[in-house]
Amino acid sequence: MTSAHQPGQHSEVTLRVNGKPQTLRVDHRRVLLDLLREDLDLTGSKKGCDHGQCGACTVLVDGRRLNSCLLLAVALDGSDITTVEGLGGDGEEPHPLQRSFLDRDAFQCGYCTPGQLCSAVGMLAEAAAGHPSHVTDPAAPSGAPVPLDRTEIRERMSGNLCRCGAYPRIVEAIEDVIA
């Protein structure tokens, strides 16, 4: 008997992906990245290292930026997932960060760009909510929005690697959106 037919190996999950409910029968070992790419044909999120170290697979889960290669899909039942394809909302206009990345040429090969974009959206929300980073001034008022200068942006985006070295343009694109 193959594992696909053994009872208890799969569960039905409902995810809200880019604003649309998706109900799928999911193998308990399947990670969100594979579900997005292979089952839902949302190929924006990339498989980089498969260890949560490069950030190419970053998506937003209930508004938080997370590495989809490390998340078991079955554990996300009921979650709201936003991929790079969903950042622009209805698809009529790109998200301001997508537009800024284009305007600033904040990518070279483009492989890391979807993860960079999702991470930047999450990072902006974290700073607005007052979540400090390693470089946030300890004297800053707790819970107050954290001002984002270049040092703060670099630190908060440090979990997303770019093999091409587009970091200066990425920081500039983010600065343009918060200016």
Structural class: alpha+beta
Q: Separation of termini?
A: 59 Å
- Determine the strand fraction and express it as a percent band: 15-25%
What Rg, in angstroms, do the CA atoms define?
17 Å
Tell me about this structure.
29% of the residues lie in helices and 15% in strands. The protein has helices spanning 32-39, 96-104, 113-128, 150-156, 167-178; strands at residues 10-17, 20-27, 58-61, 64-67, 80-82. The chain has a five-stranded mixed β-sheet, covered by helices on one side. 36% of the residues are buried.
Q: Which properties best describe this structure?
A:
179 residues, alpha+beta, five-stranded mixed beta sheet, 29% helix, 15% strand, globular
Helix and strand topology:
Elements: E1 10-17, E2 20-27, H1 32-39, E3 58-61, E4 64-67, E5 80-82, H2 96-104, H3 113-128, H4 150-156, H5 167-178
Helix pairs in contact: 2-5
Summarize the structure.
The chain has 179 residues and is of the alpha+beta class. Helix content is 29%, strand content 15%. Strands 2-1-5-3-4 form a five-stranded mixed beta sheet, covered by helices on one side.
